Amino acid sequence: MTPIGVERMGDQADTLRDRDVLRLENLDTDLLPPEAALRTTERAVRDDDANSYLPFLGHDRLRAAATALVERNGHLDAGHYDWRRQCFISAGGLSGVLNTLLALLEPGDEVVLTSPTYVGLINRVRLAGAVPRFIRLVPTAGGWRLDRESVASAVSERTRAFLMMSPSMPTGAVLDRDEWQLVCEYCVASNSWMIHDSAMERIVFGDAPRLQPLHFPGMAERTVTVGAASKEYRMIGWRVGWIVCPMAAAEAISRVAIGNVVCPVGIAQQAVADAIGAPDDGIASCTAQWSARHDAIVAGLRTRYDVVPAHGGWSLLVDMRRQAVSGAEASRRLLAHGVAATSMENWGLPDTEHYLRLVFANEPLDRLAELPRRFDAAFADRPVGR
After folding, report:
1. Rounded to a whole number, what is the largest CA-CA distance in the chain?
2. pTM higher than 0.90, yes or no?
3. DSSP 30-72
4. Is the peptide bond before 217 cis (omega within 30 degrees of 0)?
5. How far, rounded to the nearest angstrom, does the alpha carbon of residue 149 sit from its chain's CA centroid?
6. Opening angle at CA 247, ends 245 and 252, nearest 5
7. For residues 55 and 257, is the Cβ–Cβ distance under 8 A?
8. CA-CA distance, 166 to 311, in Å (whole number)?
9. DSSP 3-state of 340
10. Secondary structure (3-state) at 280
11. What is residue 77's DSSP assignment?
């Protein structure tokens, strides 16, 4: 288990007590949740039904809504899943990921992830007693692409699961059809589970493909979808996620779900159900704003720094090797010039130490306009340019 880095940088930035600091270190957002969800939350704090351990596996209305959402996004027929038996509400998406890993893996099993990827996912694989194996994401001028040869080398006779996310975090990588097809073929051939972290699947920019494992042959019977209200619905503090799974995984996941967290947050669940069912959930309009912020960062930095564009999500990476500094040193220098950003050591294979993450979900365009000047001040003694 390794530090994620965000907790340390967040604490350092908080200690400064300086509102001028650009907060690019943590996956927060300043864009509000759906209005219906806010109103329902206000009512729930005085609702006795919300102040209960029961039902342990989540409120029925939310389970039905989350199941229908997974069916729509996965291009499955309505009723493909029985929400009463195949959907479980979790205390956020990462709780759902851990519950799934604990339920489906034995010590020593191997789980395939991309690199770079969120170190919190890697740590949960280890916490479940399993071993992470990595498929490389390769940076290009147009964004990240899957290293096809590394897929084969990541899979072995001990592979039991793939843990995939698209858009990925922290890269913002969006897999295209050929990349998803290759990954799914190896998943089927190795008779593995696919754990699909769908937290950002609709936060996709421009004409990037909107694909996920349920769209591919042979995947419905092996895909466990873990979703969350935190990113798409901007409901981070509500701590509500969901697991929708094949029947073969349901009993084990339900037992772990009760044994791990007991029950999700009662006062939050009806609000999330309303967010899922809202006529205007705000995802499209918020994605347009996040895309504009991403584009502003890329335009402001790309002539002097090796910015790898994202195709979705809330963050992008900067390769600091041209400046001859590690991601950790870049993070330290930038904080001295009013930019809080997290370095990427431990977020996959050893070469992730060269990267710095910039989260663009929590700062408006007018404040992001300051970023190029602060970068230049932080690296005035370092090589710049192409």
Report:
1. 62
2. yes
3. SSPPPHHHHHHHHHHTT-GGGSSS-STT--HHHHHHHHHHHHH
4. no
5. 24
6. 80
7. no
8. 9
9. strand
10. coil
11. P
**What kind and span of H or E run contains 27?**
none
Q: pLDDT (tens digit, 9 = 90+) per residue, 279-313?
A: 999 999 999 999 999 999 999 999 999 999 999 99
pLDDT beneath 70: ranges in the chain = 384-386
The count of C-alpha atoms lying within 13 angstroms of the C-alpha of 129, restricted to the half-sphere facing its C-beta, is 10
Short-list 128, 124, 94, CA closest to 109 = 128
Give the per-residue pLDDT at 314.
98
Locate CATH 3.40.640.10 in the chain: 35-277
Q: Return the SS3 of 89.
A: strand
> 111-144: b or e for each residue (b if 16 or more CB lie within 10 Å)?
bbbbbbbbbebbbbbeebebbbbbbbbebeeebb
- The residue among 52, 47, 5 whose CA lies nearest residue 27 is 5
Query: Tens of pLDDT along 218-247?
Result: 999 999 999 999 999 999 999 999 999 999
Strand 193-197 and strand 87-90: the pairing is unpaired
R_g over Cα of the chain: 20
Q: Say what the pLDDT of residue 382 is.
A: 83
At 299, which amino acid appears? A
What pLDDT, on a 0 to 100 scale, did the predictor assign at position 53? 94
Q: Which CATH class is domain 35-277?
A: alpha beta
Query: By C-alpha distance, which of 153, 278, 165 is closest to 212?
Result: 165
Q: Which CATH code is given to the segment(s) 6-27+282-378?
A: 3.90.1150.10
Tokens of 38: 């806010």
Please give the structure tokens belonging to residue 263. 């029950």
Every domain of the chain with CATH number 3.90.1150.10 lies at: 6-27+282-378
Task: Determine the Cα–Cα distance for residues 248 and 101; give it in Å rounded to an integer.
Answer: 14
What are the C-alpha distances in Å from 150 to residues 170, 194, 349, 371, 385? 19, 18, 12, 35, 31
CA-based torsion, 370, 373, 378, 379: positive or negative? positive
What's the DSSP call for residue 76? P
